[in-house]
Amino acid sequence: MSTILSDTSTRSLDSTPPLDHGYMHNVTGRVAVSSISVDDEFGRDDSELSNVHSILQSLKTDYDRDANPVHAWEAVASASRVGIAPPDWAFRVAVAAADSIVEIRDNAAAGTPVNREAECVGKALGFGADSPGRSKGPLMQAALQKRDRSIQSKVDRERSAGTKLDFAYLKVAETMGISSSTVRRAYKSQRKERETKRTLTKGNPHLPTKL
After folding, report:
1. 19: exposed, middle or buried (C-beta count within 10 Å: 0-12, 13-18, 19+)?
2. Phi, psi angles (nearest 5°) of residue 93
3. How many other CB atoms sit within 10 Å of the CB of residue 67?
4. I need a surface site. Which of 36, 104, 106, 154 has the fewest CB within 10 A?
5. Is residue 14 very low, low, confident or very high in pLDDT (cuts 50, 70, 90)?
6. All structural domains of the chain with their residue ranges
7. Are 78 and 50 contacting, i.e. CB atoms less than 8 angstroms apart?
């Protein structure tokens, strides 16, 4: 399979269609290359692509709010699974991380000792204890956010079925093996986040309002 090299493309990755053979994108002088024939190897349909684009937009909204690198890496992974280019904002995070890792290597080659290699690389990828304004690490923050959104979805389904809110908390807590106070706190937090998101996206109909 041949790959055509180019460093002149300025096409936006945020609205990039599925990649063809040799499709590339230049970001700050860096070239991203794909030689995958997605039509042959991925077999995805329009609904799958639409779902991924919705996920990518939600991840961008999350990243704009808290700058958690997990959102960027999830965006890269989500796009890669269906053979489309990652959005610009996530690709820039990946490129910056790659540059930092190469810098660590170059410093080591020049004789600078690399102490705690795993920690150095983790910080290069955007993880570390020195993240300002965070009481928990990025991974735990993202995990709790994912859990809380699952709680919100389950409580909303119970309410749609006619269950009163307090009983919905209890049922979801029992199902998930957590306390009802945790469910209540997570649900209220997600409701507040959803309302904030609706306010922010009110003037832009292209942004999703669902969490």
Report:
1. buried
2. -65, -45
3. 16
4. 106
5. very low
6. 13-87, 135-211
7. no
Q: CB of 100 within 8 A of CB of 94?
A: no
- Strands (DSSP E) found in the chain: 24-27, 30-33
Q: Report whether pLDDT(151) > 80.
A: yes
pLDDT band at 32 (very low <50, low <70, confident <90, very high): very low
Task: Give the three-class secondary structure for 97.
Answer: helix
Distance CA(129)–CA(183), nearest Å, equals 28
- Rounded CA gap, 18 and 7, in Å? 19
162-202: pLDDT as tens digits: 999 999 999 999 999 999 999 999 999 998 887 776 666 56
Side chain identity, residue 177: G
Give start and end residues of each alpha helix (H) in 125-211: 138-160, 165-176, 180-201
CA atoms within 13 A on the CB side of 48: 12
- The b/e string for 165-182 (b: 16+ C-beta within 10 A; e otherwise) is eeebbbbbbeeeeeebeb
Instruction: Please tell me the distance from the alpha carbon of residue 118 to that of residue 184, in angstroms, as a whole number.
Output: 38
List the beta bridge partners of residue 33: 24
Question: Residue 42 in contact with residue 59, Cβ under 8 Å?
Answer: no
